[in-house]
Design goal:
Aspartate Aminotransferase, domain 2, about 15% strand, 12 strands, alpha/beta, globular, seven-stranded mixed beta sheet, Aspartate Aminotransferase, domain 1, binds pyridoxal-5'-phosphate, iron, about 45% helix, three-stranded antiparallel beta sheet
Length: about 400
């Protein structure tokens, strides 16, 4: 049994906030189908519409610009599919150019979707990123033409925490009449996100990344932006996403957002200090290491580190034996031993990309957690380096 359990994998998912849990237990009473006209249906509807106002208000949107969905992946798929739409019913296909511009550091739910759309005839272009993982604005600007339908760039990278210059990206796309989507799944709850400040047309969020429940997210669609539903059926979400609403999940998501209003800012300040101590401690105790991501424009709790001569997976297993939970890349990509596409895009090379670990700290982590990691982590690297040197000597 480890001395202590330390969860530092909050970019994969977060624990449910106790207040969210309470709200959801109470929410179980509102079992009616929100589309039903009777009392039980109306009660569920009231809670959903209340939640919509809370979610919308938090990002500066109007409630009718928010569509509740089942996940961040679904929201991202929905937006991208609008631009490959072939259906005669929504009319989008007649008006919108088909080219999509994205980057190669996006989450797999963007990258796999655009790959699939490309197979079906959509032109996809990838903006370069620099060594910190930031999208190169000049390159992006040059890619945008009158044939571009959509620019989709994430707001914060899940693996290295780099924050993108979404405001400038949106401006340069809008200057050429092109609409902009940002996958803000990792940003919401960690940094301020406001659609009027960013001036994006579509924005994705997912509740389980900010202490809400899994299986619920929201897609912001600016009023008047072209739209085509990915899931057709009933008239839920004003015909934009069929399927009986996940009342309980939606209530949980809204409660998580309410908690962020007071807790996000102090938590970010604390996380910055914890991350700084973790970074300094690692630098002082381990040789030949490299930090990935932007040093300043970065999520407050994300620290990605590469080390020569060690496999990230081995480090992860040894840390797990000490009760420390981290990740070697995006959780969705784990199971594959391919080096992280994000790290490769930053140009660090396959070997270093293989020897990388992501610490993603959350609101309940403490300085004691960080000190515990700093006690356990360096000897693990040393041991694995010795093992790999011994193995190389045969
Ligand atoms: C940047 C980013 N986008 C999208 C997703 C997918 O969100 P969900 O798990 O809600 O499908 C994730 C999940 O890790 C993510 O990090």
């Amino acid at each position: 049994m480890p001395e202590r359990y330390v969860y530092m994998d909050h970019n994969a998912t977060t624990p449910i906030h106790p207040e969210v849990k309470k709200a959801m237990i109470e929410g179980m009473e509102y079992f009616g189908n929100a589309s039903s006209f009777h009392y039980f249906g109306r009660l569920a509807r009231k809670h959903i519409e209340n939640a919509r106002e809370i979610v919308a208000g938090f990002i500066g949107a109007n409630p009718d610009e928010i569509i509740f969905v089942g996940s961040g992946s679904e929201a991202n798929n929905t937006v991208l599919n609008i631009y490959a739409c072939q259906c005669p019913c929504c009319g989008v296909s007649l008006k919108q150019p088909k080219e999509i511009i994205t980057s190669n550091v996006e989450h797999p739910c963007i990258l796999r979707t655009v790959e699939c759309l490309r197979e079906r005839g959509t032109t996809v272009r990838y903006a370069d990123v620099d060594s910190s993982g930031k999208v190169d604005l000049t390159h992006l600007k040059n890619l945008v033409t009158e044939n571009t339908g959509l620019v989709s760039i994430m707001m914060a990278n899940n693996e290295i925490g780099t924050l993108m210059d979404i405001k400038e990206i949106a401006k340069s796309a809008h200057d050429k009449g092109v609409l902009v989507h940002t996958d803000a799944v990792q940003a919401v709850g960690k940094v301020s996100v406001n659609v009027n400040d960013l001036k994006v047309d579509f924005l994705t969020m997912s509740a389980h990344k900010f202490y809400g429940p899994k299986g619920v997210g929201a897609l912001y669609v600016r009023k008047g932006a072209p739209f085509c539903p990915m899931i057709r059926g009933g008239h839920q979400e004003k015909g934009r996403r069929a399927g009986t609403e996940n009342t309980l999940g939606i209530i949980g998501m809204a409660k998580a957002i309410e908690m962020l209003k007071t807790e996000m800012a102090p938590s970010s300040e604390k996380l910055k200090k914890l991350k700084q101590r973790l970074r300094e401690g690692i630098t002082q105790t381990i040789k030949d290491i490299y930090f990935n991501g932007h040093i300043d424009d970065s999520l407050p709790g994300t620290l990605n580190v590469s080390f020569d001569g060690v496999e990230g997976e081995a480090v992860l297993l040894y840390l797990d034996m000490e009760g420390i939970a981290v990740s070697t890349g995006s959780a969705c990509a784990s199971g594959s031993l391919d080096p992280s596409h994000v790290l490769l895009a930053t140009g660090i090379g396959a070997e270093k990309a293989h020897g990388s670990i992501r610490f993603s700290l959350g609101k309940d982590n403490t300085m004691e957690d960080v000190e515990y990691v700093l006690k356990k982590f360096p000897p693990i690297i040393e041991k694995l380096r010795k093992m790999s040197t011994a193995y190389a000597k045969g």
